[in-house]
Design brief:
Layout lengths: L4 E6 L10 H7 L5 E3 L13 E2 L1 H6 L3 H19 L1 E6 L8 H8 L4 E4 L5 H9 L3 H4 L2 E4 L3 H4 L7 E4 L4 H11 L6 E6 L7 E6 L3 H4 L6 E5 L8 H16 L1 H5 L6 H20 L4 H24 L5 H14 L2 H4 L4 H6 L1 H8 L15 H13 L8 H17 L3 H17 L4 H25 L9 H12 L1
Parallel strand pairs: 1-4, 1-5, 2-3, 2-4, 6-7
Antiparallel strand pairs: 7-10, 8-9, 8-10
Helix pairs in contact: 3-4, 10-13, 12-13, 18-20, 19-20, 21-22
């Protein structure tokens, strides 16, 4: 049994005069025609339905594109063959066609069409091959333009929000002027140079807006490239860095991690401390690049491999974001999926033995709970603490004290409290109050070690107040 067919045609970059004769014939035939959007200069004379309502009702472009494909497939299954008309050329910056090409439910027939890029090169008087120009979707700018100096033709600059994101990404590296390309091939065509400093106020973006940037001051992502080169040079020329191994760097990695945690606490106390966090994250990043450099010297992996690896892992572990899986089901089976992925014999395998004890206890409990091996509720956890406290009272040994602490972590887990964080804050509160006790005693001429219990209690209550 043959598959239903979706024929994809392009409406060209502007008016109906730029549509090919073949496409015109298909659009005027008896087969059902679907427009991705009626917001196109050539769509005005077509009496057919569009998918514009999906743009208005769904939350993201990814959701819109997926819904369009599903509706097209359903229509093709009903009719046997349908025509799908998209702006420009089907193979230029058309994400629904990318999805259709991967869909095994239908056979795809793509017809040639004129692209807006053809008019762009004409307006710019640029041969894209000779100039080695790169077309970049504004929605994926940082990814698609990474490492490139230009020239760049940035497409799909359809909103003020997208333009603002571009400005944020390019402000330090953009040239003094860029070229606006808007409404190419239409009566309202606008091709002009715009000062980068005023680009947001000089442009009113729409679905026919693109920007041409002939050259950047440095590549997108240059900061990481420059930093990787710095680490390489330090390793080659600094006597101390040359001597380091993965093992010798352990203490520095641990130290920098703790300094990041301390900086996070400072930010939570006062957002004005974000500068501290930025600096400490930089120190931690140096450790990541350093270990990757050591591995690269052994022919094992590079920092790019590290980035690719975590990218792919996060992509695979989030099918509810990048696919159609249920989010609650993904979260509920997170640890089980990791066990299968890493071929672990036990859910408890893979917990680093160097973790702090409270965090280790929390991880063990969470993984066990993922299988349903846990108490029913908070009341159960509190009763367990009371039982363990009674056992400590009767037998104050390391074993019983350990069981009490483990039970306390159960309470933290049941209340969604990070026990490590909670204990750290409790210690900080005590330290603050004890310093008040010391100041109070010194002002009153008291020596704490010589004070009786009643005096210590009175000073402590004053400190807490």
């Amino acid at each position: 049994m043959s598959l239903p067919i979706v024929v994809v045609v392009g409406l060209g970059p502007a008016g109906a005069e730029l549509i090919t004769a073949e496409t015109t014939e298909l659009l005027g035939g008896d087969e059902p025609v679907f427009l991705r959007t009626a917001r196109h200069p050539a769509a005005g004379g077509l009496e057919t339905s569009s998918f514009d309502q999906l743009y208005e009702t769904l939350d993201s472009f990814d959701a819109v594109y997926t819904a369009i494909v599903d509706e097209l497939v359903a229509a093709a299954e009903r009719h046997g063959r349908v025509i799908y008309a998209v702006p420009g050329s089907p193979l230029v910056a058309e994400h629904t066609v990318e999805l259709l090409r991967k869909d095994q439910r239908i056979a795809l027939d793509i017809r040639p069409a004129l692209s807006f890029a053809d008019l762009a090169w004409l307006s710019l008087e640029v041969d894209p091959l000779t100039a080695a120009a790169t077309m970049v979707d504004a929605h994926q700018f940082l990814t698609d333009a990474a490492g490139r100096l230009g020239p760049l033709l940035i497409t799909q600059v359809h909103s003020a929000e997208i333009l603002a994101d571009l400005c944020l990404a390019l402000d330090d590296v953009a040239p003094s002027t860029v070229t606006l390309l808007q409404g190419l091939g239409t009566p309202n065509e606008d091709v002009r140079e715009v000062e980068w400093a005023h680009v947001r106020s000089a442009i009113s973006p729409d679905h026919l807006t693109s920007l041409w940037i002939p050259r950047l001051a440095e590549p997108i992502g240059a900061a990481f490239i420059r930093f990787d080169e710095l680490v390489r040079r330090l390793r080659a020329e600094c006597p101390w860095d040359r001597e380091q191994t993965h093992g010798s760097l352990r203490k520095h990695l641990l130290e920098e991690t703790h300094e990041v945690l301390e900086a996070i606490d400072l930010v939570e106390d006062d957002p004005a401390n974000y500068g501290e966090l930025e600096e400490e994250l930089g120190d931690l990043l140096f450790q990541v690049f350093f270990h990757a450099r050591l591995a690269a010297e052994q022919g094992q992996f590079t920092v790019a491999d590290v980035a690719d690896g975590i990218h792919d892992k996060l992509y695979e572990r989030h099918p509810h974001v990048f696919g159609d899986a249920d989010a609650d089901h993904t979260v509920a089976n997170w640890e089980l999926n990791k066990q299968v992925e890493k071929q672990r014999q036990s859910l408890l395998d893979g917990i680093p033995h160097t973790l702090p004890a409270l965090l280790t206890a929390l991880k063990v409990q969470k993984r066990a709970a993922a299988t349903g091996f846990t108490g029913p509720d908070l009341d159960w956890a509190l009763a367990d603490v009371a039982e363990e406290l009674a056992e400590v009272t009767a037998d104050p040994t390391e074993h019983e004290v350990g069981d009490l602490l483990y039970a306390a972590v159960q309470v933290a887990r049941m209340t969604n409290v990070d026990p490590e964080h909670a204990l750290r804050h409790a210690v900080a509160r005590f330290a603050t109050r004890f310093r008040r006790v010391e100041r109070d005693a010194a002002e009153r001429g008291l020596v704490l070690a010589e004070c009786d219990a009643s005096v210590l209690e009175e000073i402590w209550l004053r400190a807490k107040g």
